[in-house]
Amino acid sequence: MSAASVERHHGDRPLIAEAHRLMERNPGNRVEIIGGQILVSPSPGGPHADALTSLTVPFLAAGLHGPESRVLQEVGLWLPAGPEDYAIPDLAVVDADYRDSHVENSCYDPICFRLVLEVTSSNYQTDLRTKVAAYAGAKVPVYVIVDRKHQRLHVLTDAAENDYGSHRIHAPGELVTLPDSIGAKVTLDVAAILDAGQPKRTP
């Protein structure tokens, strides 16, 4: 998702309250708090949504939206880095009992997240840098990034303090099987996903 940082300059007003105000004033925008900063992302376009749907299909086909786990779009993930920090990944695989891990502000404890996934937009560095540290710090086991700008798919595993120990980059033409830790065998066709996310398809 594309995002712009909004520095805290609201006096004693909690960031959460300011985030809610921004959501009310900008319907359809995604508002997150990462590293004590509010990030506002405009509504994604059709190709972003197309890539996301193309990604969802193999997760559903593998049975991950069932009695043991659920496949969710834009669900809040509470981040341990700050008292008000949270992120909203494009897609997540969570434990089926995730409702028992509700924290607040429509966000859930990262312990129930098996995988998070982002499809990049104009400010791709948010997904490739800021959120890498955020999700690693939350100990999310698998982070997948569809990098539409550079036409790559990233799979990050082995979460450490603020980074992932393994960062594999895949190009069109590759079939990528995600780690078994998500609960089922899921293989992604890199070319098909990246093609779905392009503003104009090549003839």
UniProtKB/TrEMBL annotation:
It comes from the Bacteria. It holds the Pfam family Uma2. One of its GO terms (molecular function) is endonuclease activity. Keywords: Endonuclease, Hydrolase, Nuclease. SUPFAM superfamilies: Restriction endonuclease-like (SSF52980). Residues 19-190 form the Putative restriction endonuclease domain. This is Uma2 family endonuclease. It comes from Streptomyces sp. SID12501. The lineage of its organism: Bacteria, Bacillati, Actinomycetota, Actinomycetes, Kitasatosporales.
